[in-house]
Specification:
InterPro entries: DUF2500
Strand content: 35-45%
Pfam families: DUF2500 (PF10694)
Number of strands: 7
Protein name: DUF2500 domain-containing protein
Radius of gyration: 24 Å
CATH class of the largest domain: Mainly Beta
Keywords: Membrane, Transmembrane, Transmembrane helix
Number of domains: 2
Order of helices and strands: EEHEEEHEE
CATH topology of the largest domain: OB fold (Dihydrolipoamide Acetyltransferase, E2P)
Organism: Sporosarcina quadrami
Strand order of the largest sheet: 5-4-3-6-7
Length: 121
Amino acid sequence: MGFTNFDGTIFSLAPIFIGIIFVIVIGSIIFSLVKGIGEWSTNNSSPRLTVPAQVITKRTNTWGGRNDTAASTDYYVTFQVESGDRMELKVADREYGMLAEGDFGILTFQGTRYGGFERKV
């Protein structure tokens, strides 16, 4: 399907829409890369802290798994430090399974990067 231009030539909108979609997709990829590199850089420049903390809550985020694709799950734990501040950190599946809500211990982290949790009885 085309439209008639002022000089009588026919043009199509399809190349314009394809170009717009291309720019949006490439822009999204570049934005994600810049955001990831920024977070990585911020974490690396943050001090590595070890503080007393309590496990407040745990949650998962499952995504994918449609048709013939595999589902993936991200694991998050919310910790509360002595000052009352809370932070949610992404943890590995093995760490997630070993932590229970209400656990007290020593949390190690660097920015938003989880370093470990040593439970105190």
